[in-house]
Amino acid sequence: MYLSWSSFNNIRMLLMACMPVIIFYLIWLINTSEGIRSEEGTLLDLVCWPDGNAIPVIITCGSIIAVVIELYGLYQLFKAGLPKREYNVTNGLFYYVWSLIIIIIIFLAIMFYSGLQSTIIRAKIKGGITKAMLRYANHLPSKIAIDRLQTRFHCCGRVGYQEWFFIPWYSAGQSTDVLSVRKFVADNVPYSCCSMDIMQPCIHHGVTKKGTIYKYDPSTQLTIWEAGCEEKLISEMMSISWRFNAVMSLIIIAMILQVIAVRYLHTAYRNGLSADNQDSCYAYLLRSDTKVAGRRKVVRKRKLRQARTLHWVTASYRRQYTTSSQSDFNSSDELLKPIYE
């Protein structure tokens, strides 16, 4: 299609107006990734290292690269409206188009890796929480991880609070391979299982026994969290993954539209359209095969005409040279004829 200078300027200004919105969402991705890495990511790292930091760090790096590319494109589009003699941005727009294509591929790879990693994390969380619970009494990082997990998600145990009844979590030095035997230890749970929604003293020792001091009745109401942590942690990770994928999908769609628009601007600008020459110029997204074949046919005809012209000039030169040499030979014979006589 042919692009006029007014259409060129309208598309250029529209792109420059949309770029700050894309940059805003990219910065939102960076801030949100860092927030998740410092909270849920750190918590997940304590349970199954290093899955808590992998995805947020990759998203942050990709978003930073995308912000730099968008700022570079904004600068190139601004210079495209200036006189071409002073600011030629043909190569700049070309590099910007390819940078957008590369960052789109990177974002698609991040989304694929995020979905794949979510499936892997689901399997790791189960074993990670169980392992940390078994090491609760002997390993301080595991104790910190479980306490933070239960306090953050209002849960107790991996599947339910009854799992703590088979773990000697309050005394060190005992065997930690008790879940395989399923030997009852005591009806006690850690203090991090205490519910903050119930305005009563927390009973986390002797959970299943009635108490006369605080009028505690486990059949009526427990003072601890009853839900397990596994499903809550997995649902939180999945919601975060879906949130990231939704924003990145919108950014990818916007970048695809940018690639199409900038490609039309680049081809029109390369064909001569600028502030110096405001005549309509041809712009295209992809070179069609018919147009390429037509151009090749024109070049072939031009070369054929040039070859014919060269052949005609060479032939005429040879005829003139032969005629002139023959006349010179005859004249020399006439000049030498009196001498021999």
Keywords:
single chain; 341 residues; two-stranded antiparallel ribbon; mainly alpha
Notes on the protein architecture:
This protein is mainly α. Helices cover 66% and strands 1% of the residues. The protein contains six helices and two strands. Strands 1-2 form a two-stranded antiparallel sheet. Helix 1 crosses helix 4, helix 3 (90-134) packs across helix 4 (140-153) and helix 3 runs antiparallel to helix 5. It starts with a strand and ends with a helix.
DSSP strand (E) fraction?
A: under 5%
Instruction: Name the strands of the widest sheet in spatial order.
Output: 1-2
Q: How far from one another are the termini?
A: 84 Å
Low-confidence segments, given as residue ranges, are none
Number of β-strand runs: 2
Binned, the helix content reads 55-70%
Overall mean pLDDT stands at: 81
Largest sheet: 2 strands, antiparallel
Q: Note the quaternary state here.
A: single chain
Radius of gyration in whole Å, from Cα? Answer: 39 Å
Number of helical segments with 4 or more residues: 6
Anisotropy-based shape: elongated
Give the structure's gist in a few sentences:
This protein has 341 residues and is mainly alpha-helical. Helix content is 66%, strand content 1%. Helix 1 crosses helix 4 (140-153), helix 3 crosses helix 4 and helix 3 runs antiparallel to helix 5 (229-270).
Helix and strand topology:
Elements: E1 2-3, H1 5-47, H2 51-80, H3 90-134, H4 140-153, H5 229-270, E2 281-282, H6 289-340
Antiparallel strand pairs: 1-2
Helix pairs in contact: 1-2, 1-4, 1-5, 2-3, 3-4, 3-5
